[in-house]
Amino acid sequence: MNVLITGATSGIGRQLALDYAAAGHHVIACGRNTTKLSELASEVADATRITTAVFDVTNQQQTQSVLQDTLKQLAEPLDVAILNAGVCEYIDDAQNFEVALVERVFAANFFGVVNCIAALLPNLPKGSKLVVVDSMARQFPFTRAEAYGASKAAVHYFASALRTDIVDTGIQVITVSPGFVETPMTDANDFEMPMRISVAEASQAMRKGIAKGKAHIAFPSVFGFILASLQRLPYRLQIALSKRMRNH
CA 201, CA 231: separation in Å to the nearest integer? Predict the structure, then answer.
């Protein structure tokens, strides 16, 4: 099976690349950092199980060119594309926020995914799976997460609507909503992260869900249930809870 993964140089993407390769699949690991991609490839025992593709998902032309060239070089069609690349920046002063910050987050988390989909979709065969990673953060108005949460909500909606529009092609769209996962990105957070799981656990949950062909994958399940319950609260209570998180 051919599996393409963006954001493969760290966090969940890196673990997915290692786990899929270890399971005997061929991985196309994508990222911006050539050195980190080379280090990743060196950890795969069988070098034939992994190839790398260097590009920036925020650059539409570069993404289109590199992905199309990469797909042409495959002996067999792509089976799974996992669009995982993303960034997180918080807004510390909501009354004086930088528009540039919001643009950077959307460039990677939303338009980066859109750029990859535009390049991949015309070349995906029937029966393939397009996996879009968003976040549980989209489900609740977390403090300081205006840009991050909005970008993940946008990409989730885009993928969900796309699922409807391409259902007759036989290409399955899968959305993934992780909670807190131990990654370099969350290591930078300065607040409590309940039920944070390891990248190994996140990778296992994703691979299991993808293999089963689930339309939506969310983990950890208990945290997802809690957030879903919070969504049903009156809005004033949601705001009160978010304020308490900000004060802590």
Answer: 25
